[in-house]
Amino acid sequence: MTPDAPVAPVAEKDRTEPQRPDLPPRRRVSGWSMTIRLIIMLVILGALGAALYGFNAFRDKAIADFFASNKPPPTPVSAADAKVQSVPKYLSAIGTLAASRQVTVAPEVGGRVMDIAFQSGASVKAGDAIVQINDATEQAELLGLRAQARLAEINLERARNLLRNQAGPQAQVDQAAAQLDEINANIKQMQATIAQKAIRAPFDGELGIRQVNVGQILNVGSPVVTLTDLSTLYANFTLPEHTLNSLHVGQAVLVGSDAVPGRSFDAKITTIEPQVSAETRAIKVQATLANPERKLLPGMFADVRVVLPPRPNTVVVPETAVDYTVYGDSVMIVRAQKDAEGKEALTVERVPVKAGDRFENGVEILEGVKPGDRVVVSGQLKLDNGAAVTLAEANPLTPPQTLPRN
């Protein structure tokens, strides 16, 4: 071929790359086929979602039908009717019991203990001997003084006779009389000293633990034994100053103690302190109570309740009926209603209440409960609002010894 010869044009199909013999021939996919595939996939996914939703709905309905047809049996509870009565009112306080008379027996003069005439814990009467201190020296001195007194009486009588006979002066009579008076005074002083060495009970009471022994040297004021009059006690307590107008002498007071659980002792206010404490703004009050059974002792803590006029016509429920929570107080009220079959069934409704004071296993209800409402008194902890209940024949809170016997 010569350089001047024209070049023949290459055909379009000849420009394409040659096909590799090991690869399949390429296929051209049209837009309609891709759309059809996408629609088919969406239909399949929708069918699967609908089937899953239908299965879940069927399962939930089956579970609901199961529990609807298998309701648990009614819960047995104990209930009581709300009553209307007068509610006793009190001013409560914590006090301390004190003896009306209590001393530590001690000698007024010193000396050696010669005799102990009591046993620890014994009861004594006023004037009973307790301890005898050695008084032999004083007894001897008393005999000498009495001899001197007899001589002084003789001298006085002799001087008076001389004066009557005008054989002696008046001054001699006066001197003899003064001497006799002085000796009589010494006799009384010695008798008082001897009496001080015979220690006796100053009043009726109970002796404590003996603190001396025979032969011991006692100093003035050394403790011998305590003596306490337990027949009458004081209950000392304090109340806020705003209660002053509710207090008066002679007002009834109930005194309780942990030493005698479940029992109250009658007392009366005998003293009201005529001033208010500047530190605590409280009033000191003292009540007096009889203690013939010796159940209470001085120094015990006392649960004091000052009796106030009762509040009449108040709704009252048992104390166990009220549920106290941080969200408020409430009670479970038993309601009677018809079930689906037309039979009467009992359910409970939780009702918020405003509770007042508690007293003797009862609580006053100021709001929320009407007279005659039946409230649950035991078993309410396992109840929900609207739960079905049945009334138990006996109150499980009743002590076994008080249940009726067959």
Structure description:
This protein is an alpha+beta fold and 406 residues long. 24% of the residues lie in helices and 40% in strands. It contains 4 helices and 19 strands. β11 and β12 (282-290) form a beta hairpin. The protein has 4 domains: 75-87 and 312-398, conserved putative lor/sdh protein from methanococcus maripaludis s2 fold (Beta Barrel); 90-98 and 228-310, Elongation Factor Tu (Ef-tu), domain 3 (Beta Barrel); 108-133 and 198-223, Beta Barrel (OB fold (Dihydrolipoamide Acetyltransferase, E2P)), CATH 2.40.50; 135-196, Orthogonal Bundle (Helix Hairpins), CATH 1.10.287. It starts with 11 loop residues before the first helix and ends in a 15-residue tail after the last strand. α3 packs antiparallel against α4.
Strand content: 35-45%
Which architecture of the largest domain would the CATH scheme give at its second level? Beta Barrel
Number of helices: 4
Strands in their spatial order, largest beta sheet: 2-9-12-11-10-13
Total E-strand runs: 19
Oligomer state of the chains in this structure: single chain
Number of domains: 4
Main beta-sheet annotation: 6 strands, antiparallel, barrel
Name the helicity range.
Answer: 10-25%
Mean pLDDT: 85
Rg: 52 Å
The CATH topology of the largest domain turns out to be conserved putative lor/sdh protein from methanococcus maripaludis s2 fold
CATH class of the largest domain: Mainly Beta
Structural class comes to alpha+beta
- Residue runs with pLDDT of under 50 for 5 or more positions: 1-5, 10-17
Shape: rod-shaped
Spatial separation of the terminal alpha carbons:
139 Å
Q: H/E series, N to C? A: HHEEEEEHHEEEEEEEEEEEEEE
